[in-house]
Design brief:
By secondary structure, the protein is an all-alpha fold. It has two domains: 45 residues; 64 residues. Helices cover 74% and strands 0% of the residues. It contains five helices and no strands. It is flat.
Length: 116
Amino acid sequence: MLEALAVLGYAISYLGNLSSSGVVNVGGQIFMLVLCLLLAIWQGSVAINFFKGKAFTRAPIIVWQLFQLILSVSFLSSDIAMVKIGAVVSILVAGASIVLLFAPKTTAFLGDRPAQ
């Protein structure tokens, strides 16, 4: 849920900078804004269903975390220190999330194995 809120926060920040000129034209900027909003809604939906104990949520969570890992590794080559720190934090969060998805208590909560 925190990642969904972070993506929503990024979309709101992006909306504030929508009028500034950049490499991407206005159509592309609006597409990116809509894409970020849809991703935030999707992540929020997955988080809510995960907290309800729906087992199908594991796959979209893993896909998102792997996507996050791939992007974070590419950000490690940046010259900006804050970007590198953010990338390392993102890698740690994604790695911990993937490991915790297969923890015995999580699989019991999702109904994959009986509670012990």
